[in-house]
Amino acid sequence: MQTTAHPRARVDLGLELGGTKVVAVLATPEGVVLEQSRRERWTTGDPARDLEGLVAQARALLAARGLADASLRAIGVSAPGPLDAARGVVLAPPNLPGWRDVPIVDALGRALRAPARLENDANAAALAEARAGAGQGARSLVYMTMSTGIGAGVIVDGALVRGAHSQAGELGHVPVVEDGRRCACGLRGCLEAYTGGAAIAEQLREAVAAGRETAALELAGGEPRAISARHWCAAIRRGDPVSLELRAAFIRHLARGLAFVLATVDPDIILLGTIVREHPDLFLEAIRARVRELTLPELHATPIVPAALGPRLPVEAALAVAALVDARRA
Prior knowledge:
By secondary structure, the chain is of the alpha/beta class.
C-alpha cells in the first residue's frame, strides 16, 4: 500500500541507471516508496538529452504526488562504472553509449535543486543490502554481483570502501588463472572471464563451435548467439555434461576469489547476488565447501549467503545512495 506524501513533505529521489532501462523512485527519507517508474531504451547517445529525460522522469514522479522540486531532500544515483564517485562524474560505461565524463551529480543537482550523490551499482547494492537486505546488522560486508560481469561492494566498519581511484571492489578483475582467458577489460585470467554471465555464454558457444552437444543450445532455440547464463543454469538441472563442467570451473574460480576476499577484508558476511541468489541449490554448498579448503580455519564460520533484495534491489540501491547525502546540505 502506497503512502500519501504531504504537499510540503521532504522526499528522496533514487535513480538506477542501466544499459537498457532506468528506474526512478520517490520515497520518504525512511525508505517508504511513494512513486516509481521505469523507462526502457532510455539512452539516445547524447548525454545531455538523456539527462533531460532523467529530470523529466523525476518531475513526473513529483507531480504525481503534488510536489515541487523544492520538496526533494536528496538525490541518489546508482550507475554502472567506471565512474568517479568523489567528483560525481560518470566516466565511460560501455553500456551507456555516448556517456563519457558526464558530471551527472552537478547536472541533476542544478536542475532539481537538491544535493545529489553518485555510486557505482555494486557499491549501491552493498549499501542497499546493508540497509534493507541480508546484510542488516553487519558492520562489515562484501556484496558480490554476478550477472553479465562481476563486481563487488565492500563495507568495512560501517563505511563504504571506494579506494584511491574509485576502483575498490573490482573483484571481477582479480587474476585467478595465469595467462588465462581474455577478459572484456583487456586483461587475461580475470575472475570475470570465468564466472561472469557473458563469459559463461561465450564458453558454451565455443563448445558448440567445437562440435560438442549441449542442452544449452536446445534451450536457446538452437541459436548459439542466444545462449545465456539462464540457459546454462537450466542445462545444469538437466545434467548436461558441458554445463556441469562449466559449473565445476565456476565454483573453483569463484571460491578462489572469495578466499581472497576473506583473507583481505575478513567481513562479517559475504552476500552473493544474481546467478547464485537465483539458483542457490546449484552452487551455494559447493562454493562454501571449496572456500573452506582455501582459507584459514578462523575464517570458516563467515557466512556466505544469497543476497536478499532480488527484484527490489534497483529501487533500494538508489535510495540507499540518497540516504548517504549529508542531511545538513539538504
